[in-house]
Every structure is written in structure tokens, then in C-alpha cells.
TrEMBL record, chain A:
<dbReference type="InterPro" id="IPR003593">
    <property type="entry name" value="AAA+_ATPase"/>
</dbReference>
<dbReference type="GO" id="GO:0016887">
    <property type="term" value="F:ATP hydrolysis activity"/>
</dbReference>
<keyword id="KW-0547">Nucleotide-binding</keyword>
<dbReference type="InterPro" id="IPR017871">
    <property type="entry name" value="ABC_transporter-like_CS"/>
</dbReference>
<dbReference type="GO" id="GO:0022857">
    <property type="term" value="F:transmembrane transporter activity"/>
</dbReference>
<dbReference type="InterPro" id="IPR014324">
    <property type="entry name" value="ABC_heterocyst_DevA"/>
</dbReference>
<dbReference type="InterPro" id="IPR015854">
    <property type="entry name" value="ABC_transpr_LolD-like"/>
</dbReference>
<dbReference type="GO" id="GO:0005524">
    <property type="term" value="F:ATP binding"/>
</dbReference>
<dbReference type="InterPro" id="IPR017911">
    <property type="entry name" value="MacB-like_ATP-bd"/>
</dbReference>
Automatic annotation (TrEMBL), chain B:
<dbReference type="InterPro" id="IPR051125">
    <property type="entry name" value="ABC-4/HrtB_transporter"/>
</dbReference>
<feature type="transmembrane region" description="Helical">
    <location>
        <begin position="322"/>
        <end position="345"/>
    </location>
</feature>
<feature type="transmembrane region" description="Helical">
    <location>
        <begin position="269"/>
        <end position="290"/>
    </location>
</feature>
<keyword id="KW-0813">Transport</keyword>
<feature type="transmembrane region" description="Helical">
    <location>
        <begin position="26"/>
        <end position="46"/>
    </location>
</feature>
<dbReference type="Pfam" id="PF02687">
    <property type="entry name" value="FtsX"/>
</dbReference>
<keyword id="KW-1003">Cell membrane</keyword>
<protein>
    <submittedName>
        <fullName>FtsX-like permease family protein</fullName>
    </submittedName>
</protein>
<feature type="domain" description="ABC3 transporter permease C-terminal">
    <location>
        <begin position="274"/>
        <end position="385"/>
    </location>
</feature>
Length: 231, 390
């Protein structure tokens, strides 16, 4: 049941790593609400908690304390099956492309659709072709990752994340491996998805070029939100 | 192949694509599975041949009940049985005939080689105790020092065996006596001898003067039609005075002999262990291949986990790989094993051959052990944590 329109909300979110004397708090009372269709950028120094927050928002870690509401579902104490089901509505873009080396670009992108259940093969291939085309890879669809450049691999990974029309995209340095023009195209694509489909994007980046395009910039330091700029 | 599997699974055949991505590694994995299959096939082939060889001499005879000494675990093992117990058994109303069966190894020195013949001493006046093929040829055994030879004996040239006929008999010396072979029958080399020979009980006693007419190795009984050998055996155990004797139906005696050869004789136990070792080698090879494959693709699996793929999907991939390894490893394994068994059969004249039963058993077994290995290998998937990807 949807609690409100914001696809992502946290309230007094705390998170720790380790146990006993080695236990270290990574997030301190993080409360935020991210609007539907927006492009939010998380910035901050290494170890500030950006990645931890991203993984908690993406159901990749168990919520220890506080609340995370994703797409209307409370994640604190949620069953693992709910996490799996919710992740199918998300798009993940990792800093490393993590493409499957045995699958072609087309097949890797199809994996982003197959997770949603049985999809008509022709429809799935049309969608994958379209996604790869949007990222300028129409002529590389049958290439294995080993035969693609770093930037091309990253664009395949982005196509894989976007092909299933995710409600939320969680991205970790998605443009790090891309040249200026490709990076700008990707961010522009994410912006357009937000406007056209209401896709919400939360992105960790050190790329200052992206900050100008973001709707909101959240700054984390030592596990706390120390800056929140709306644009 | 990829298309076919895609239709079959209703998804991308990731297992197939993953395995075939590195052709060299795939070929090595298949060779490993094929090797395990060859091991199992050869051991099974030898076990089967042992069964065939053990039961073969029983097929020369035609009886309902066999009386043996207490220590007689096999046809060619154990002490003698006093003929008087045959006479006592024949007092049973269902017993219609009895015959003493003598058994010994007779050597035929042929130049540099020696043919070891398991020799049966039978009463030529009672052809009903023999298989129809042999019974039809025992006429000459009425003659002293006459014999019938196993034409498939190991080391006996086929042309020479084919020349042995009543009108062209062949004589040879053994134990200082001349034995004349008048005809042949089909047997074959076994684990205990190179072949078989049939002689009359009188000839047998002449060849082996230490043996006594009153003490054959076994006593064979025929029953009236319709009598149950098991029931009569039970009744005979009460009737015959010597309670230490083994009185069994002839069929049961064959089964006991086979069980003894396979489970209590060193050769049978070794071949049995060979099969187990082959299966274990197969499990270890498939597990090693699959668990290495899982470890090599941990980041990809973690990515799929992050995308929302469940445990069933990963289990499906690993089991798909296990099935492919099992299936594609089985084919060359079966072919190589067929060739090896044929070659071994020719070299040893043992009844070694690939049988449909072996193919079915090993095929199903291969798929099962591959799946078991796959299921064990999926435990490594727990290490694929998508949170580590960021």
C-alpha cells in the first residue's frame, strides 16, 4: 500500500557495520524524501555513507534501524521475498559494468527484461534493440563484452538497467567510464525518463558536470546529510 | 543448440553459454565426465561379464534341485557329497531322477600354452540333466576317454575347434592319458578357466583317479512336472539325514553363486568398488567444474541477484550446466567404453560387452550424479552478495 507519492523515503535511518568493539556507525538519523521523476545526486567524500545509503534504498542490505519506504513498502523487517520483488522494479547501474562475459550485448540487456517474467521474445528483442539504440550501440548488439570498449560496456549496462522501465534507477558513478559526450547523453536520457515516465534516479557521482543537471544534490559527510540543494 | 535450449527453458540458456564460452575448459570438463563414465562402464562391464561367466555353466545343465556340501558357495568350490544322499532324496515322491555331477580342472598342454578346461563329469545315460544342445551330442561320451569341448575356449583357434566332429575327432594327452574330443558346444572363457569340457563320469574318474565314484561334487535332481523346487527342497532338508548339506533349487544355487562371486570374492568386491569410485570421481569432477564456474561468475550472479533474480534462477543455471556436462560427457564416455570393452573382450575372451541395460543405468546415473554435484555447487552462490557490487 502506498504511503505517499514519494517513491523513496527514509526516516531516522541508522546503519552499522561490524560487531562488538569493531562496530562502526555508517549512517546517522538519515531522513529524506525523494520526489517521483526527479534526478537526485548524492555527493560527499569517500566513506561518507553514500554507497551504504544507496544499497539500503535498493533493498540490497537489511534495514537495521529506522525506516526505508520504497515504492510504498516499508523495508524495515520486510521479508526477503519482498526485497526480491521490489528489486525487479528498480534499475541498478554499477560503477563496474558487471556484464555477463558469455552473453552478447543484446542478451545482457534482455536479462533486464527476463527478470520480469515471460515476455514475448519479439517484444523483448524490440525493447532491447531500442534501449541499445538510445545508447548508441545499434551496431554492437551481437558483440560479446570482451569485444567492447569500457565505455561501450558501461552503456550496455545502462541499457540493461533501463530496458525494463524501472520505477527507480540507483546508479553508482554511472558516467565514470564514459567520455564527456556519452556521459552527458546518459544523464540527459535519465532526465528525459524522469519527465516522460516518472522514473526516479538517485545517483552517486563525483562528476561535477552532472551536478548542474540534477534536480537535487544531497551532500553526505560522516553518515549525515549536511547539505540539501534543490535546483 | 543455443536456440533449442532457449525454446526448451523459455529463457536465455545461460548455463550453455557460460560453459561453451571457454571451449578449452568445456572440452576438459567433458573429458573429465567422459573419463568417469568410462571407469563406471568398464567396471560394470567386468561385473556383468562375471555374472555371465558365473551363470554360464549352469546353462549347460538342466535340473530342478542341487545338493551341495555345506562349504560349497559356488559350482566349482566346496567338498564332495556322498552319493547315498541322492538315493535318500530319490525316496521323495516328487523326485524322478538324480545324477552325480563331478567337476575339476583339466589342463590341455598345447605347445607353449596350456588350456585350463573346467571339466564336467556327467552320466551320459541321463541326457535330461543337460541342456538340449549338449544332450544332443553326448552319444560319443559312452565311449571311454571321450569328451565334448567348448569351441569358444580361450586360446583355442576357431578353425581348429570347427574341425572337431564325430567323423574327425581330435585327441590330446592329459595326465598321461589320451582323451578324444568328438564334438563341441558353445561356452566361452571365464574367470576360473579358459573354457569347458564334458566327459562321462567314468572318463572323469579315469582322468582323476583320486576322485571316487561315490562322492560327486554336487547331486542334481529332477522333479515330476508341476512340483515346486522350493517346496521340495524344504521337504528334502527334513528327509535327508545329513543336515549340513545345502539343498536348494537349481535356480537358487545359481543366484547364490552369483551373489557369492560379486560380494564375497575379492574380484567381485574390487569391481564393485570400481563402480563406486567411478561415480565418486564423476561427482568430484562435475562439482569441481561447476563450483569453479560459480566462483568465476560471482559478480555476474550478484548482479543478477541485485536485479531481482531469485534462488530458483541460479539453481536452474547450475543444474542446466550439470545436465549439459552429464549429457555431453556421457556420449563420448559411452563410445570410448564400448570400444574398450570390445577390445578387452577380444583380448580376454571374457563376455565383455556394452549392454542396453548398462547404457540406461549409466546414463541415468550420470544425470543424477551431475545434478547432485550441481546442487552442492549452488551452495557457493550464497557468497554472491549484491551489496558488494557498489
Amino acid at each position: 500500500m502506498a504511503l505517499d507519492d514519494a517513491p523513496l523515503r527514509t526516516s531516522e535511518l541508522n546503519h552499522w557495520f561490524g560487531a562488538g568493539e569493531a562496530r562502526k556507525q555508517a549512517l546517522f538519523d538519515v531522513s529524506l524524501s525523494i520526489a517521483r521523476g526527479s534526478l537526485t545526486v548524492l555527493v560527499g567524500p569517500s566513506g561518507s555513507g553514500k554507497t551504504t545509503l544507496l544499497t539500503l534504498l535498493g533493498c540490497l542490505r537489511e534495514v537495521q534501524d529506522g525506516s526505508v519506504v520504497l515504492l510504498g513498502h516499508e523495508l524495515h523487517g520486510a521479508r526477503p521475498a519482498l526485497g526480491v520483488a521490489l528489486r525487479r522494479r528498480l534499475g541498478f547501474i554499477f560503477q563496474a559494468h558487471n556484464l555477463h562475459e558469455s552473453l552478447t550485448a543484446m542478451q545482457n540487456v534482455l536479462m533486464g527484461l527476463q527478470v520480469k517474467g515471460r515476455v514475448d521474445k519479439a517484444t523483448a528483442e524490440r525493447a532491447a534493440t531500442h534501449a541499445l539504440g538510445l545508447l548508441g550501440l545499434s551496431d554492437r548488439m551481437d558483440y560479446l563484452p570482451a569485444n567492447l570498449s569500457g565505455g561501450q560496456k558501461q552503456r550496455v549496462a545502462i541499457a540493461r538497467a533501463l530496458v525494463g522501465n524501472p520505477d527507480v534507477v540507483l546508479a553508482d558513478e554511472p558516467t565514470a567510464a564514459l567520455d564527456r559526450e556519452s556521459g552527458a547523453n546518459v544523464v540527459d536520457l535519465l532526465k528525459r525518463l524522469g519527465e516522460a515516465r516518472g522514473t526516479t534516479t538517485v545517483m552517486v557521482t563525483h562528476d561535477t558536470r552532472i551536478l548542474d543537471l540534477a534536480d537535487r544534490v544531497l551532500t553526505l559527510e560522516d553518515g549525515c546529510i549536511v547539505g540539501d540543494q534543490q535546483r | 543448440m543455443s536456440r533449442l535450449l532457449e525454446i526448451l527453458f523459455g529463457r536465455l540458456p545461460i548455463g550453455w553459454l557460460q560453459l561453451t564460452h571457454s571451449r578449452t575448459r568445456f572440452a576438459a570438463a567433458l573429458a573429465g565426465v567422459a573419463f568417469a563414465n568410462v571407469l563406471v562402464f568398464v567396471q560394470l562391464g567386468i561385473m556383468n561379464s562375471m555374472a555371465t561367466a558365473t551363470l554360464r555353466p549352469y546353462s549347460f545343465l538342466n535340473a530342478d534341485i542341487m545338493i551341495s556340501a555345506s562349504d560349497s558357495n559356488a559350482l566349482s568350490e566346496g567338498g564332495n557329497v556322498a552319493r547315498q544322499w541322492m538315493l535318500q532324496a530319490m525316496a521323495h515322491p516328487d523326485v524322478t531322477a538324480g545324477m552325480g555331477l563331478f567337476l575339476a580342472n583339466v589342463n590341455w598342454q598345447r605347445g607353449a600354452t596350456t588350456l585350463g578346461l573346467t571339466t564336467f563329469g556327467i552320466d551320459p545315460a541321463q541326457p535330461g540333466f543337460l541342456s538340449p544342445d549338449i544332450a544332443a551330442k553326448i552319444g560319443p561320451l559312452q565311449i571311454q576317454m571321450a569328451g565334448l569341448l567348448d569351441r569358444l575356449s580361450r586360446g583355442l583357434p576357431r578353425e581348429e575347434a570347427a574341425g572337431i566332429r564325430p567323423q574327425s575327432p581330435l585327441s590330446f594327452e592329459t595326465s598321461g592319458k589320451t582323451l578324444t574330443l568328438y564334438d563341441t558346444f558353445a561356452g566361452g572363457g571365464g574367470f576360473g578357466g579358459d573354457g569347458y569340457m564334458m566327459v562321462s563320469d567314468q572318463t572323469f574318474l579315469a582322468l582323476l583317479p583320486a576322485r571316487q565314484s561315490a562322492a560327486p561334487d554336487h547331486i542334481l535332481l529332477k522333479l515330476r512336472p508341476g512340483a515346486d523346487p522350493e517346496t521340495v527342497s524344504t521337504e528334502l532338508r527334513a528327509l535327508v539325514s545329513d543336515k549340513t548339506l545345502r539343498i536348494r533349487s537349481f535356480v537358487q544355487a545359481g543366484k547364490d553363486d552369483l551373489s557369492y562371486q560379486q560380494t564375497r570374492r575379492p574380484t567381485g568386491v574390487i569391481f564393485g568398488f570400481g563402480v563406486i569410485i567411478g561415480v565418486l570421481v564423476g561427482i568430484v569432477i562435475v562439482y569441481q567444474v561447476l563450483s569453479t564456474d560459480v566462483a568465476d561468475h560471482m559478480r555476474e550472479y550478484a548482479t543478477f541477484k541485485a536485479m531481482g533474480y531469485g534462488q530458483g534462477f541460479f539453481l536452474g543455471i547450475v543444474l542446466e550446466e550439470a545436465l549439459i556436462l552429464g549429457l555431453f560427457g556421457f556420449i563420448p564416455g559411452a563410445l570410448v567404453a564400448t570400444g574398450l570393452l570390445t577390445l578387452m573382450g577380444k583380448l580376454t575372451t571374457l563376455p565383455l560387452a556394452m549392454t542396453p541395460g548398462m547404457i540406461v543405468i549409466v546414463f541415468v546415473g550420470t544425470l543424477v550424479f551431475s545434478m547432485v554435484s550441481g546442487a552442492i555447487a549452488t551452495r557457493r552462490l550464497a557468497g554472491a552478495d549484491p551489496a558488494d557490487l557498489f
